[in-house]
Specification:
With 130 residues, this protein is mainly beta. The two termini are 27 Å apart. It has a 5-stranded antiparallel sheet, with no helix packed on it. The chain folds into 2 domains: 66 residues, SH3 type barrels (Roll), CATH 2.30.30.30; 58 residues, OB fold (Dihydrolipoamide Acetyltransferase, E2P). The radius of gyration is 18 Å and the shape is elongated.
Length: 130
């Protein structure tokens, strides 16, 4: 399955996800400016990285296309915890793998509980405890 798809910049809105400089980002603000009568409308997007939390900006003509990541939301069970890493098992495929525990979730993550994680662009990110 493809990890990205192309979407017209003019169709994007706040809350959508796009790829800026190779990093998946969530759009926090969009604005459109229309220059002179022979110019194309420009779309200015502010976004925050889903994996690194960095703020990014992108300005493109409204008719251009941009890549948007395909995010799979899945469930997993925690098998073991060691430090800041958890060994988890996917609830559908029974595949086991290691995953970093986000700093704000370290108190809640214990063996045997279920978590929601995102798989995007070859990276798995723990998002919440069920």
């Amino acid at each position: 399955m493809d990890e990205t798809k192309l979407v017209s910049v003019g169709d994007l809105k706040k809350g959508d996800t796009i790829i800026i400089d190779g990093a998946p980002c969530k759009i926090t603000d969009t604005s459109t400016s229309r220059p002179g009568k022979h110019g194309h409308a420009k779309v200015n997007m502010m976004a925050v990285g889903l994996l690194d939390g960095k703020k990014r900006q992108l300005v493109m003509p409204g008719h251009d296309k941009v890549e948007t990541p395909i995010i799979e939301k899945k469930s997993a069970q925690i098998l073991s915890v060691s430090g800041t890493t958890a060994n988890v098992m996917d609830m559908e495929t029974y595949e086991t793998f290691d995953m970093d525990i986000p700093e704000d979730m370290r108190e809640q993550v214990k063996e045997g509980i279920e978590v929601l994680y995102w798989a995007l662009m070859g990276v798995k990110v723990m998002k919440q405890v069920k």
